[in-house]
Amino acid sequence: MISITKGDITKFSVDAIVNAANSSLLGGGGVDGAIHRAAGPELLAECRTLGGCETGNAKITKGYNLKASYVIHTVGPIYSQSRKDECQRQLQSCYKKSLELAVQNGCKTVAFPLISAGVYGYPKKEALKVAVETIEEFGKDLQVTIVLFSDDLIDITKEMFGELVK
Ligand code: ADP
Description:
Elements: E1 2-6, E2 16-21, H1 30-39, H2 41-48, E3 58-62, E4 70-75, H3 84-104, E5 109-112, H4 124-138, E6 143-148, H5 151-161
Parallel strand pairs: 1-6, 2-4, 2-5, 5-6
Antiparallel strand pairs: 3-4
The structure holds adenosine-5'-diphosphate.
């Protein structure tokens, strides 16, 4: 089951929240910074043991001070129009690998931000379409929420996927 809602992902009470991380896994701006601030310094300490993460892949840690038990860190592509097919495959892989890790760790409820749609520049409508389609394909056994952070995205989303917006 999939739904889309507006909110701050760091506040979600789910089994796992997904972080749009960078390949160092050592923290950054945007949702990554917000998750590290809310989880506390132990999250960064665990991330330091992971040896980074490739674009399109995902790694899991505990959630520490978050309400979520786990954080799944995935690294989206930095968008480039000239490599758009490759970017799309990498973005699909982020969702697929994150969902696989969630299932392997017994999670039933997962919340995603819109990966790559911030600083990494993926066009928002395209990013949303990839998110919904990939979660529909690979997240069947999970309750998945896509968490949007801004009002402009909610308007686009209602046009595209009105029936999923909660
Ligand atoms: P990326 O580097 O993958 O583009 P960003 O963190 O810059 O990652 O942005 C990814 C998405 O997460 C953007 O749509 C941004 O608006 C959103 N975002 C930022 N902070 C939060 C938050 N606290 N909760 C949910 N989404 C957030």
